[in-house]
Input
Amino acid sequence: MADVHTPAQRQLNMQRIRARNTRPEIHVRRLLHRNGLRFRLHRRDLPGSPDIVLPRHHLALFVHGCFWHGHACPMFKVPATRTEFWLAKIATNKARDQRAVEALRALGWRCGCVWECAVKGPGRLSEEVLAVRLAQLVRSDAQTFNVRGETANSSKTGPA
Output
């Protein structure tokens, strides 16, 4: 199947995709801040440059896009064009994510992932539920965790 965009339009679309300060990331930051939790952003001195770092709780949070990180939820769909390229790209992203979590855990950090589907889309969690869940997980003893949307193919929160 051919791409519906011209190569120039596709390039422009891809250039506009952000790696940092995405809407889901900003939403999570606002909820954490509203709950009195203070954090640092994009600590490049830590493996994987976590999106949000809560030093007081020794917690590194990643806010992952469901497409880019291959989440098993309705928001993830393999593109019909260049399928092999995208599957390889997403597999590489997942492997890099796993290496970052392992390196952080080796340094004694707790790691969490908030998936895009928890923040937006048809299965998103309500703002109140997401805020409470984040606050509980931040203050818990869980070493790794995921926060997923309601329509994800697995439990809403659970081990990474």
User: Anything to note?
Assistant: The domain at 19-158 is CATH 3.40.960.10 (Endonuclease; Chain A). The chain has five helices and six strands. The longest strand covers residues 59-64.
